[in-house]
Specification:
The structure holds two protein chains of two kinds.
Chain A (H helix, E strand, L loop, with lengths): L1 E7 L7 H11 L1 E10 L21 E10 L8 H7 L2 E6 L2 H9 L5 E3 L12 H9 L3 E5 L1 H4 L3 H19 L4 E4 L11 H11 L3 H8 L1 H15 L27 H29 L7 H20 L1
Parallel strand pairs in A: 1-2, 2-3, 3-4, 4-5, 5-6, 6-7
Helix pairs in contact in A: 3-4, 7-8, 8-9
Chain B lengths: L5 E9 L17 H5 L9 H24 L8 E6 L4 E7 L3 H10 L2 E3 L13 E3 L1 E8 L2 H28 L7 H10 L8
Antiparallel strand pairs in B: 1-3, 1-6, 2-3, 4-5
Classes of the chains: A alpha/beta, B alpha+beta.
């Protein structure tokens, strides 16, 4: 149930099995192994092979961190997202952050919070990203060990301002720990988030639900048509007459279908019954109905008299 | 009646770095779970651990943090229980400051290892470790119960893993690890 969506990884690193063992020991269930690319993309894109001797309780994902300096350099993001389970962008200046928030197709925006940022986070910019389903990531790793005092101070300051700017919504927390030593247990991370200004519930969501949403949404984006329609079951044997694949849809396709079948029947029943009530002879007439009829009779009689 | 409210943090010291794992004479493949939970050196005393935590709070929060703990002379943090063999400790702190203490523990990343020949802690180099808070509770009894429960489960888990290793992986499945995750979800005893 606990997610760590940023663990730096290279296949020939001898420390990897220790790190994964330790992650499993700390109670994480899903781990994204990330690869970082700066600048130009290599011609062939493929996720590095996953380690084979990982603990069984861990679910492993692949992730790409793409450093984004110049908004003009158009990356092949569509091709990238097919090769990796998650694609994260790391904007280095405000312009590219704005671009990443509003336009680019990615799953996570992960700003390097351990350096001093020369700009402020704006709610409008970040909320645009969050409403598109892109989450903002805080990596606690550089602030824990190794990177010195400044990194820790910057991380605390930037994380606080990021939380303030997003009002605590759409934030995920992950480690970016280069060594097993700077990993922390999930509840310790939640406490850190509390100290940074998230509430306890939001902090828990940042490690559990929000991260789960990121992985689920990323999966949906890759397998389905525009993230809306997905074929869950091909429907081969159950229906002999229907060779067309049964499309089990996401909410958008379901919505118009439901009121036609289920809802309409109910309504018709209600309307029928309301129509039949006054015509029902067995039922005694209400006083209101009697009055109305009397008035109508009077009116008719009057009309006949005048004509 | 006015009552001083405390929080008891059940803390666990983990050693993720394989270089610091104690060397064993046997040549059989080591169980990583066991090594992560390896014992702490005896030079880590209760007083020294309290001093370490207080220093870390001072480093992170400065005078404000120390003040929150109850000043310099007042105890503030006391180590109620420390077992180097199982690397477990129970730390008492004022309720108002438990998040400070907890985050200070999170930012700590090493226990002192005595240099060869010297007896006192703090003279040698540091041994990298991770302090994990297992439970926050309002009474010491609950923290103690949790510690016992966890220790018991660890033993069962490690024994299970050993048996499986002997059988050569005939019995598949990672049930002991799953059970750990289940318990991890409820390790929050934060009342208040």
């Amino acid at each position: 149930m606990f997610y760590d969506l940023n663990v730096p990884y290279s296949p020939d690193d001898p420390e990897v099995p220790h790190t994964l063992n330790f992650l499993a020991e700390l109670g994480y269930t899903t781990v994204a192994l990330s690869q970082t690319i700066n600048g130009k993309l290599p011609p062939t894109l493929a996720a590095p092979p996953l380690p084979t001797n990982a603990p069984k309780s861990l679910q492993l994902l692949t992730r790409l961190n793409l450093t984004l300096a110049d908004p003009a350099q158009n990356q092949r993001l569509a091709a990238l997202s097919q090769a990796y389970d998650l694609v994260a962008l790391r904007p280095t200046n405000e312009k590219s952050l704005l671009n990443a928030c509003t336009n680019l197709e990615c799953d996570v925006i992960s700003v390097d919070l351990s350096v001093r940022l020369p700009y402020h986070f704006k709610f409008k910019m970040l909320s645009a990203a969050i409403s598109r389903g892109v989450r903002i990531e805080i990596c606690y790793g550089p602030g824990i060990t190794g990177s010195g005092l400044d990194a820790r101070r910057n991380l605390i300051g930037n994380a606080t301002s990021l939380i303030r700017a997003t009002r605590g919504r759409g934030i995920i927390v992950s480690s970016e720990a280069r060594r097993a030593l700077s990993l922390r247990a999930p509840w310790d991370v939640i406490n850190l988030a509390c100290v940074w200004g998230l509430s306890q519930e939001r902090g828990k969501e940042a490690v559990c639900e929000e991260s789960r949403k990121v992985t689920a949404l990323a999966k949906l984006r890759r397998t389905s048509w525009r993230g809306i329609v997905d074929i869950v079951h091909g429907g081969e044997k159950a229906k002999p007459e229907g060779p067309a694949p049964k499309q089990k849809g996401a909410p958008k396709t379901k919505e118009p279908a439901q009121p036609e079948t289920g809802g309409d029947n109910l309504k018709r029943k209600a309307s029928i019954s309301s129509e039949t009530v006054p015509e029902d002879a067995d039922k005694p007439l209400s006083k209101r109905e009697i009055k109305r009829r009397a008035k109508k009779a009077r009116f008719d009689a009057k009309g006949e008299n005048t004509t | 009646m006015v009552r001083l409210k405390n929080r008891y943090l059940l803390v666990d010291i983990l050693y993720p770095d394989p270089k610091t794992w104690p060397t064993t004479p046997t040549t059989k493949p080591r169980n990583p779970q066991l090594a992560i939970h390896s014992p702490t050196s005896d030079t880590l005393t209760q007083g020294f651990l309290a001093k370490m935590i207080r220093d870390s709070v001072a480093e992170l929060y400065g005078d404000y943090g120390i003040g929150k703990l109850g000043g310099v002379t007042a105890g503030g943090i006391t180590i109620k229980y420390l077992s180097p063999a199982t690397s477990t400790a129970i730390v008492r702190c004022p309720r108002a400051a438990f998040r400070l203490v907890w985050s200070a523990l999170t930012y700590m990343s090493g226990v002192p290892e005595p240099a060869s020949g010297q007896k006192r802690a703090g003279t040698g180099r540091e041994r990298g470790c991770v302090f994990r808070v297992l439970r926050v509770s309002g009474t010491m009894r609950k923290a103690e119960e949790e510690a016992i429960r966890r220790a018991r489960r660890e033993i069962v888990r490690v024994k299970d893993a050993e048996e499986k290793g002997v059988l050569g992986g005939l019995v598949g499945g990672g049930s002991p690890i799953v059970d750990c995750v289940m318990d991890e979800s409820e390790d929050e005893g934060m009342d208040g």
